[in-house]
Amino acid sequence: MSLYAVGDLQGCLTPLTTLLDHVGFDPAHDKLWLTGDLVNRGPNSIGCLAFVKKLGGAAQTVLGNHDLHLLALHELAQPTKDKGISATLNHPDAPELLAWLAQQPMLVQDAERQLTMPHAGIPPLWSDKKACKLAQELEQVLAKPKTRLVFLANMYGSEPRLWKNSLDGMERLRFIVNAFTRMRFCDEQSKLEFNFKSAANSAPLGMLPWFAWPATKRKHRIVFGHWAALMGRTDNTQMLALDTGYAWGNHMTLMNLDTNVRFCCDTEGVISEFDEQAFAAKRDGG
Question: What local confidence, expressed as pLDDT, does residue 280 receive?
Answer without folding.
Answer: 60
